[in-house]
Specification:
alpha+beta
């Protein structure tokens, strides 16, 4: 969950690029969350036109939304402790430990948690 200045900034944050030799260059999100590499099929991102802490607003519309929403509500209740306008979901991955990323203007993210689906 986080804050981004624009939808474009969100996509730049998660996009893996490639060198001229075809080697993957990890995205900034991979570096921030210390994830060496993940395929595009296991990630979903969503930019909201508004700031929110409401679990339903944040996770509605994602794959496995019912399971994710119920799991997050079980952890935090219906309101998250920190809000935002962007979410990044990684499927099949469980991050160990807290992460807070803030570059002061364009992107700030924190790890909300992991739920089993």
């Amino acid at each position: 969950m986080g804050h981004v200045a624009s939808e474009g900034n969100l996509h730049e944050y998660v996009q893996t690029t490639y060198s001229e030799d075809g080697e993957a260059i990890p995205s900034r999100s991979s570096k921030d969350f210390e994830i060496p590499h993940f395929s595009e099929g296991v990630i979903e991102v969503r930019f909201l036109d508004f700031q929110t802490r409401a679990v339903l607003d944040v996770f509605r519309g994602h794959s496995y939304e019912n399971e994710i929403i119920q799991g997050i509500v079980n952890l935090y209740g219906e309101l998250l402790t920190q809000g935002g306008n962007a979410v990044v979901l990684l499927f099949g991955y469980q991050h160990a430990g807290p992460v807070d990323v803030d570059d002061g203007s364009i992107v700030s993210f924190h790890c909300v948690g992991a739920v089993a689906i």
